[in-house]
Design a protein that fits this description.
It contains eight helices and twelve strands. It has about 280 residues and is of the alpha/beta class. It has a five-stranded mixed β-sheet. A four-stranded mixed β-sheet has the order 4-8-10-9, with no helix packed on it. α6 crosses α8.
């Protein structure tokens, strides 16, 4: 299907008012246009419930698609009792809603990686330098199959996705350690070493001191067949635009704005409304 416009939008984080305002700015028409979301649909904005409902409805209409972010997976983990609701997250209304199970069943079946067009690939946090995009797509499918499996399978997986220590990737890594490493690369990564070893504590901007031997994952220059569109790193404020990578988390929930990247020409449109929670 051909569309008038396609836009990739950074982390919504439940910023429902800013999201609705951005759609007006884009003159979004679900019958002609398509939205792609970089994950973290929910968390610290003022209305995660209606944000999730709206995105689900658009996806089911064929007017949108999303990948999963770390806050989305955490929401699923809270739903299944594998994690506790974080005090800073404003997602409790989702669990009190009549359609909670329907929303979360839909959410867990969303992909980790998607191809918005023939020139780009969309993930939440990034793709590490030691993975090709083709390999990343294969690894994404592995994690998706676990998240989308039976509830028994899901309940075994979720408690094993969390660790304060980064797992070192190698060809023989397997089991829950493998799934956790895959999830961390796609949904938590900011800094890494050239071999892919992750660092979880740094979340500041690029002008801040970084741990020795670690760089932002996108600064390791490796051949890429597609431009990687990503969110997650709010401190970048969407200002990273490289031939192989484009940041799209504008940090709306932190007092900035939502960003929409138009696929046809790379133009970035910002919301004029901020999150009331900021």
């Amino acid at each position: 299907m051909s569309f008038r416009h396609q836009y990739v939008i950074g982390d919504l984080q439940g910023c429902h008012a800013a999201y609705l305002q951005l759609l007006k700015t884009l003159d979004f028409d679900p019958n002609q246009d398509k939205l792609w979301f970089a994950g973290d649909l929910v968390a610290r904005g003022e209305d995660s419930l209606n944000t999730l409902r709206d995105v689900k409805a658009l996806c089911e209409q064929g007017a949108a698609a999303t990948v999963l972010g770390n806050h989305d997976i955490n929401l699923i983990a809270v739903w299944r009792g594998a994690a506790k609701l974080k005090s800073k997250d404003k997602t409790a209304p989702i669990f009190a809603a009549d359609d909670c199970d329907e929303l979360l069943e839909w959410l867990r079946r969303q992909p980790i990686l998607a191809y918005p067009d023939e020139h780009t690939v969309l993930v939440h946090a990034g793709i590490p330098p030691h993975w090709s995009i083709e390999a990343a797509a294969t690894y994404a499918k592995e994690l998706e199959s676990q998240l989308q499996g039976s509830l028994e399978q899901l309940d075994e997986l979720l408690p094993n996705l969390y660790s304060k220590k980064a797992d070192k990737w190698h060809s023989g890594i397997e089991g829950f350690t493998r799934m956790r490493a895959i999830a961390n690369y796609f949904t938590r990564m900011r800094l890494c070493q050239q071999d892919g070893l992750l660092e979880f504590d740094f979340n500041a901007g690029l002008d801040e001191p970084m741990p020795t031997d670690f760089l932002p994952w996108f600064e390791w220059q490796v051949p890429r067949t597609r431009k990687i569109l990503f969110g997650h790193w709010a401190a970048l404020q969407g200002e990273i635009d490289l031939p192989h990578a484009r940041a799209l988390d504008g940090g709306c929930v932190w007092g900035n704005c939502l960003l929409a990247y138009r696929l046809s020409d790379g133009k970035v449109i910002a919301s004029s409304a901020q999150c009331p929670s900021s």
